[in-house]
Every structure is written in structure tokens, then in C-alpha cells.
Automatic annotation (TrEMBL):
The keyword NAD applies. Residues 82-477 form the Aldehyde dehydrogenase domain. This is methylmalonate-semialdehyde dehydrogenase (CoA acylating). The lineage of its organism: Eukaryota, Viridiplantae, Streptophyta, Embryophyta, Tracheophyta. Signal peptide: none annotated. The keyword Membrane does not apply.
Amino acid sequence: MLPLKFSIQRARNLKALKPSIFALRSSYYFSTGVVEPSSSLRSPPRVPNLIGGKFVDSQSSSTIDVINPATQEVVSQLPDIDKLAMNITTEQGKTLKDAHGDVFRGLEVVEHACGMATLQMGEYVPNVANGIDTFSIREPLGVCAGICPFNFPAMIPLWMFPVAVTCGNTFVLKPSEKDPGASIILAELAMEAGLPNGVLNIVHGTNDVVNAICDDDDIRAISFVGSNTAGMHIYSRASAKGKRVQSNMGAKNHAIVLPDANTDATLNALVAAGFGAAGQRCMALSTVVFVGDSHSWENKLVELAKSLKVNAGTEPDVDLGPVISKQAKERVCKLIQSGVESGARLLLDGRNIVVPGYKDGNFIGPTILSGVTADMDCYKEEIFGPVLLCMKADSFEEAIHIVNRNKYGNGSSLFTASGAAARKFQTEIEAGQVGINVPIPVPLPFFSFTGSKASFAGDLNFYGKAGVNFYTQIKTITQQWKDLPGGSGVSLAMPTSQKL
């Protein structure tokens, strides 16, 4: 646990992260040297842990391969709790442009955390009664932890540890075993910026490491982003040990399109939000509900989706990279087929796409299913791939009912030219993040990431004021400084504002 003066200094020092992180845009160099293509590596490097400010080798004999999803080559090996600093695109598969966005959306939270001294100010009321003052302060919890997903290997860690450490805590970060490299880069930059040894620590692994974090008596709070299965396991297990948990989980984000929506702007938004990052975003627009006639919308949607370029994320002008693994590709393809077998119309099929030079890649092209209904598995489950589902509603009210009936509540958007419709939507829709003509309404860090329903477990969301409250404990002090008359006797009555 760090005192307040350290948290203020950490906020100042984190400003030094900005130029270093911006330098990542044009450089793929790490402290260990230039990252070479995995085909040139005779033996994949083993990834170190970060413990007490030092990168240390794991003693584990078992390893987990980190696979390049575009080539299936092993780029590094993780002993159960190890990892290697490597490029986001190489490990995760997203395009370079999207990888830059991954970093910069996280950097926004870093910048916000630089103002932590004012963000955690308490309240003060002098002379509430008979010379008595009352005030509140926020104190650090102690040791906190973060468990991260594969899809945003830079942004999600930056949602967590900058807020936690500037609030005065120490932090244990467990990145995804699929793409651990970005966390090592961020840790190196944080230490260069002056973060004291032991404030940020990194461990690697899978289920056993997650359970150890949930069970450790010294860890007071856990932040998690990932699937519902893992999220609810972590929430239940850690909460049973008395820990605070914020668990951001699955989603089925909808867009309602009214007939008066701007055609070109809406189509561009649907395609970008539906297929960007190969659909591997918790805020991806996976379902479109067209109110009224949908035929013309769907035809134009297909034509625009066909124009997207699918290739390895390092290739120029690419729009979609591969999905993270062969298992992920198989799951996405299975859900597409289940939709077809349930009666949905396959308007665009990206399952058999061929990418020259990357025959072993986990590629899926943009896919569009129409005539989808709420009882289909492709609708009930989060696909997490470049698949856009099209549904139809006869009225605006029916469309809102479709969205609200879904168990998830991460985000939802409306496309319209009507202010009255927008007001009705923002009032009645049951989602944490609401967009009006905005396809991915993720808020800037002055606010909080406010997923709800089955998309979130806990009572304090990520970053913003809620994030500060999550990583701190409020303490209220009532004090009296005055000469008390002697011989007043003992009173056992409940004190009130008049008798304090």
C-alpha cells in the first residue's frame, strides 16, 4: 500500500509514459532487441515474469505456445507463468492500425490517471455540531490484481494498473496467455517512467494462476475482462474470499436502424463496428435490427462488406486480420452453420476465404446472416467473430423489446434523424453504453465503462469515478477539538448532532 504522496508522484511520473507509448507507433524494438519473424527463430524465446521490479525466469518445466494467428508459427513459449514481449499484431492478429488504437485508447486512461490527486479528493464539512468537524478521505486497498483477455492486450491492462497504482495500490497483472507481449512492453515503460520496483508485477498462466489470484489472502480487489464463464467463476470465487471484483464479460450489442437514418453513414458505421478487429471486441456491433423494410439495407450492406480486405494484420491496407486461434475459427464457423440450419439466410459467407501466402491462417471473411430470430444459437451466443446478424421489427417499440429481451447489456446504438426517437431510445433501452448515431459508444475515461445485466458483475465499473472508488476505500473522520466541561457525567444515549 502506498501513501498519498506516492500516488501523486506516480500520477506525475505516468505522464512520462506518453512519449514512450507514442514511439511504439513506428518501432517494433523492445529491450531484448529487434523482434524477428518466428520463422527465423531456431528456438522460440521464453517469456519472463516481472516480480519485484525484475524480470525473472520461470522455474516451470511446462510451456504454452504463443501462436501467430496468421501463420500458426510459434513466436514464443510461456512456462506456465512466463511470457515474452512481442508485437500486438504478431501475437493477436489485429491490423497495425487497430493495434495502434488499442494502445491509444488505453493511453487515454493513463492521461486521466495523471490527475488522480484531484480525482480522489474527499469531502469536508466544518462545525457540523458543537465544534465538531467531519470529513472523508480515500485510502488505497493494498494489493490489487487484473486478469486480461486476448483481444485488447494493451488497452485493457491500461484500464487497470494506471488507476490502481495512482490510487496508491500495488498491482499484479495476468495477461492472456495468447498474447502476453504488450504487457511486458508497458511494464518496461512504467519502470522507465519511475514506477518503483514491486508496484507493478506480471505473472503468466491459465486456470491455476487465475485461481491462485482469487484465493490469495493479500489481494484485496480483482479486475477482469473476458468471457462470461471465466468472469462468473472469478466473481464467485473471489467474492467468496471477501474481495472486491469488477467483471466485464460477454455481449450481444445491437443497433436499431430506423427508416429515416442516413443511409451511407449508417452503412459505414455498421460495417466498421461489425467487422472491425475481426469482430473480436466486446463492443462489436453483432446484431442489426431494421425497423420496417430491410431488403434494400441488407443488399447495400453486403456490397460494402465485400469490399473489405482480409489479410495478415501486418499487410498494407488490410481491414480484417485473422481470429485468435484455430479453435476460435471452428467455433465461429459452427455458429454460422447453426444459423443456416435454423433457417437464417446466408447473404455473405466468409468461412472459406483464401488469403494468399497465409494458407494456415485463422481467417474468416465478413459474414452476414439475415432473417435471424431470438431463438437461434447464433443470436443467443456471443460469436466473437466477423459475423453480422440481421433481424427485422415492424415497429420501433418492437425493436426496443428485442434488444431489452437479450440477456446482455454492454452497449446498444440507434441510427435515426429523429430527436424524439433518440430520446425514447436512451430512456427505454437496457444497456450500459448507449449510442445515438454512434456505433461503438465506449466513453472517454472521464466517465466509466458502464456495462450492465449479464455483461457485468460487481457494483463499481471500470475507470472514471467508479474506477477510483473501486481501487480505494472511503474513510470518514469525525473530530472534536474543544475544552470539555468536567463533571458532566456519562451518557449512554445514542449521540445526535445536537449532543455530539
